[in-house]
Amino acid sequence: MSGQDDVFRKWAQRPVRFAIGAPSLDDPKVLRALRAETHPWGLPVQAPLEPPPPDSDPPATGENLLARLRPAVVILASAAPAPVVDDATDPPVLMVLYVRDGTRLVGRVLPLDADAGEVSIGRTPDNALVLDDGSVSRRHAALRYGAEGWSLTDTGSTNGTFVNGVRVREAVLRDGDRVRIGGVILQGVLDAPRSQRVDEIRTHLDTIDVLTDTLTLRGLQGRMDAWSSAGGRSEAMLVALDLDALGAVNAKYGELVGDDAILALAERLRRILPGEVTCARASGGEFVLWRSEPLPGGVDALVAMVTEGVSAESLVLQEGRLRVSVTAAGVSVAPGGAAPEAVLTRVREAMRSRKRAKAAKAAAGAGGV
Predict the structure, then answer these.
(1) Which residue, among 358, 353, 325, 341, has the nearest Cα to 282 in the 3D structure?
(2) Using DSSP, how many helices (H) and how many strands (E) does the chain show?
(3) What is the distance between the alpha carbons of residues 55 and 77, in angstroms, rounded to a whole number?
(4) How confident is the model at residue 59 (pLDDT cuts 50, 70, 90)?
(5) Which pLDDT score is estimated for 100?
(6) Is the CB of residue 261 less than 8 Å from the CB of residue 340?
(7) Is the pLDDT assigned to residue 4 strictly greater than 60?
(8) Contact indicator for 285, 352 with CB cutoff of 8 Å
(9) SS3 (DSSP) at 291
(10) If you write DSSP's letter for every residue of 307-348 in order, what string do you get?
(11) CB 76 within 8 Å of CB 19
């Protein structure tokens, strides 16, 4: 496995800061530096791995918050040394990475003018930075440039303002910080070279799911295709799982809480999964797990590990806890067998069939009460 694959296996699922043209990931010094900086699952090195007691209030550093306090660094080494483009005249920007209601804003950059005074952010056209999304308040937040750089202030929004997963009333932004305004996630590209980095981030939006920082299905299929092309010698494992009752969570608490549950589920999966497992978000609360080597107990053991590990304790959300379960199904993938895309379709349908059977059984049980 190449150095870059090794880093993606451990860190690509974490909040990503891209460093372009940096030393090769095959350099042991680079890997040691990354491992010293970031726990293999993205948690701060000194962070406790045990969850808080089930009946306690969620601390400010819940499991899905800790993972966002020190984002991983993915170094993208250039094939050949390239001169750094001097874009000092380009303004710093906030780049839209994710919108809960669709993709129409994704990839857009919002320039920041240090001489503009207060820069208002909100849904309505009278804001300096307009985010036309229903989850964003009319006057949601404001930016101002000062001695410490760009400071972000929540101006009494309904759904809150978050920096690197932590709800804030005011915070100084650093280059690479993730900002969530309602259901919109942005990233600050504040330091040069800006234009080059914006282009690089755009190219990865198809392969990295911004909400959970797992792979997308396209990114996962790339891994599976690479395994198939390499002629793997042993069976691989593929598991599809889906968060139960996500629609009921959205209806009762709102879709932003549903997003928070999906994010917390991704963090839980990282905690309970064995090594060498790639996690991708397919859609909604559906995830797909891939491991190119078998495990003792086979696919059934991995399915049981996931279902039992998720239901064992409540998910830690931003403002509370939520007890959930998942439905999962898995298959073994034989080398030289069916195309990975066909196997992926089959396992997702098997999971959905189990989910329909579970729902039918629950409905029958409710009807018999």
Answers:
(1) 341
(2) 9, 20
(3) 46
(4) very low
(5) 80
(6) no
(7) no
(8) no
(9) strand
(10) HHHHHTS-EEETTEEE---EEEEEEEE-TTSS-HHHHHHHHH
(11) yes
User: What would the pLDDT profile of 250-296 be if each residue is shown by its tens digit?
Assistant: 999 988 899 999 999 999 999 999 888 999 999 999 999 999 988 99
pLDDT above 50 for 86: no
- β-partners of residue 312 are none
Residue 18 in contact with residue 76, Cβ under 8 Å?
A: yes
Q: What does the radius of gyration of the chain's CA atoms come to, in whole angstroms?
A: 21
Confidence of residue 32 (pLDDT cuts 50, 70, 90): low
C-alpha–C-alpha distance, residues 264 and 261, integer Å: 5
CA distances from 269 to 61, 259, 309, 315 (A): 18, 15, 8, 11
Q: Which of 38-42, 171-175, 227-231, 362-366 has the lowest mean pLDDT?
A: 38-42
Burial class from Cβ neighbours inside 10 Å (0-12, 13-18, 19+) for residue 300 reads exposed
pTM for the model stands at: 0.72
How many percent of the chain have pLDDT more than 70? 75
The 3 state secondary structure assigned to 44-110 is CCCCCCCCCCCCCCCCCCCHHHHCCCCCEEEEECCCCCCCCCCCCCCCCEEEEEEECCECCCCCCEE
CB 17 within 8 A of CB 73: yes
Query: Do the Cβ atoms of 239 and 269 come closer than 8 Å?
Result: no
Residue that is written with structure tokens 């900002």 in the block: 179
Residues with Cβ within 8 Å of 80's Cβ and at least 6 positions away in sequence, in order, are none
Q: Is the pLDDT of residue 89 over 70?
A: no
Longest alpha-carbon distance in the chain: 71
